[in-house]
Amino acid sequence: MIKVIWTILFLICSLGLAGQKLIDVIANHDINEHQNFTFTNVNGMSFFDFDEDGWDDLTYPMENDSILIL
């Protein structure tokens, strides 16, 4: 009986929780970068502060095993 009460209490409390909402901010920040690697299997992008300036750097893997950092 206690498990049922805890389950009902949990379900009632979780009704007010909202999921993650993603907002497209590309147009607001004038970002126009895109990937178009048609002759390779390399795709992806990462965000990391490589130069430790407090701003995330955009990185793209390149065909010759190098990384393009913007």
List the keywords.
three-stranded antiparallel sheet; 19% helix; alpha+beta; 70 residues; 3 strands
Describe it.
The termini are far apart. Strand 1 and strand 2 form a beta hairpin. The chain has one helix at 2-14, and strands at residues 46-48, 57-61, 67-69. 19% of the residues lie in helices and 16% in strands. With 70 residues, it is of the alpha+beta class. The model has no long low-confidence stretch (mean pLDDT 75). It contains 1 helix and 3 strands; from the N terminus they run αβββ. A 3-stranded antiparallel sheet has the order 1-2-3, with no helix packed on it.
Cα-based radius of gyration, to the nearest Å: 22 Å
Overall pLDDT level:
75
Number of helices: 1
Strand order across the largest sheet? 1-2-3
Q: Helical amount among residues, as a percent range?
A: 10-25%
| Element pattern in H and E | HEEE
- Shape category: elongated
What share of residues are in beta strands? 15-25%
* Total count of strands: 3
Quote the distance from N terminus to C terminus: 58 Å
Class based on secondary structure composition and strand pairing: alpha+beta
